[in-house]
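Action item from last week, closing it out:
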Amino acid sequence: MDLRLTDIGVIRELFERHGFSFSKSLGQNFLINPSVCPKIAQMGGGNENVCALEIGTGVGVLTKELAKLCKRVVAVEIDKGLEPILAETLGDFGNVEIIFADVLKADLHRIFEEKFAGEEVVVCANLPYYITSPVIMKLLEERLPISSITVMVQKEAAERICAAPAERECGALSYAVRYYSEPRILFRVNRGSFMPSPNVDSAVIRLDVKRESPLRQDEEQAFFRVIRAGFSRRRKQLVNPLSDELKITKQQAAELLEKSKIKPSARAEELTMEQYFALARSVASEK
């Protein structure tokens, strides 16, 4: 059965028949622009040689597009109320499995071992705005065997996540994401592409996950400490929050910066990734 899942009338009829209602608390906005999900699936790396993890199915619009392209699709959906709807909309696809769980609490390593053992996996999702950062960082920090993460997020969040060092939108999240991956914005999606329509536009981003860590474990811990410190007071010279975070004097903090070839007067958003790496190595070497 090929339901037009981006047709408002079809969606409303599905919801009425199954007694489903929107959940504001879950940030549910369903895509009604038919061109968006095929682009996400294709630009997200979907093909016959890979498997896909989807986060949040909605009524299955993106799930269907991934199922057409990929070997297997496993989707993690928090709203069990969608179960009868998904049984209908995805019933023709034998390569789709839905796991009803909160992705932020789910054991993703176990899911990968059980569902994707040895396979190349891409992640695709239309993320509710309120869980954008936690989900992206969980996927990256757990170092899952993922080749790329392609997600639709709020446009402003996309600009922050993909901002390069020294750009106005760049923040702690930008550096953290760039530590684990190579991020880029693929395309923008206007607010009229959803039902109900949100108050903001969206954008689809892709993070190509790095296969190796650029720092040792102790240096990596230092990297995230100095990032967190610097952006806790981003308008201050880095020497001040650095001394507070590391419980050292400002003179010692200045010496660490100079050892890393960074001006003591520098501010957090002015540093390149390489400068933060150098600072992390200096901090780790002091222990």
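Closing note: The chain has a mean pLDDT of 91.
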